[in-house]
Amino acid sequence: MTAKFHPMQSLQHQHQHLILIGMMGSGKTSVGRLLAVSHRLPFIDTDHEIEQRAGSSIPDLFAAQGEAAFREIEHKILTTILQGEERAVISTGGGVVVNGANRDLLWKSGFVVYLKADPETLLGRVSHDTNRPLLRQGDPLQTLTKLLEQRAPFYEHAHLTLQVNRLNCRQIAGRIWAHYSKRH
Ligand code: S3P
């Protein structure tokens, strides 16, 4: 496990949410839920909020309206969530960082943690899951590798990067909290 912390990135945010970013299958939702339960904080999953708001599943939303429409809804919902006054653990969809406005919002609203895993590990965790429309076509390992390559420069700007290939959720949550609680 390696942890990389950027001390120069000051936390000049208003709400100090604990925000998890990273690829599909990196464990954001499971780890986020565990952190929230353990520390009695509200838990918000952006994908879940999108599904609630749209009244359909993410694959159905992609199929009916396409990725661009999904990204618009994702941006609106993220904006609303991050304005919430109550400090929360927030798990985000893997592609949220591609939009620069989303990145600005995320980085100023809380402590951003990147759950970093290699494509093989990610594939192992999503291979039985039909809920990821981006992995439904072509070779999923190639897709994950390509998306990771494109997104890594954004993910790596997180306040904290945790290499999670060999860690379970409890270990990941413990390490995140050790860093977060020092600052909040
Ligand atoms: C996506 C990741 C998904 C979901 C959508 C698009 C992506 O969320 O937002 O399928 O672009 O990587 P998870 O990262 O929670 O799987």
Notes on the protein architecture:
The chain is α/β, with parallel strands linked by helices and 184 residues long. It has a single domain, classed as Rossmann fold, CATH 3.40.50. It is built from seven helices and six strands. The radius of gyration is 15 Å and the shape is globular. The model is unreliable at 7-13 (pLDDT under 50). The structure holds shikimate-3-phosphate. Shikimate-3-phosphate (S3P) is lined by residues 24, 28, 47, 58, 93-95, 132-134.
* CATH topology type: Rossmann fold
List the ligand species. shikimate-3-phosphate
Shape descriptor reads globular
| Strand line-up of the largest beta sheet | 1-6-5-2-4-3
Main attributes?
14% strand; binds shikimate-3-phosphate; Rossmann fold; 184 residues; alpha/beta; six-stranded mixed β-sheet
Task: Give the topology, please.
Layout: E1 3-5, E2 17-21, H1 28-39, E3 43-45, H2 46-54, H3 58-82, E4 89-91, H4 100-109, E5 110-116, H5 119-126, H6 140-155, E6 160-163, H7 169-183
Parallel strand pairs: 2-4, 2-5, 3-4, 5-6
Antiparallel strand pairs: 1-6
Helix pairs in contact: 1-7, 2-3, 3-4, 5-6
Quickly describe the structure.
With 184 residues, the chain is of the alpha/beta class. The chain has seven helices and six strands, in the order E-E-H-E-H-H-E-H-E-H-H-E-H.
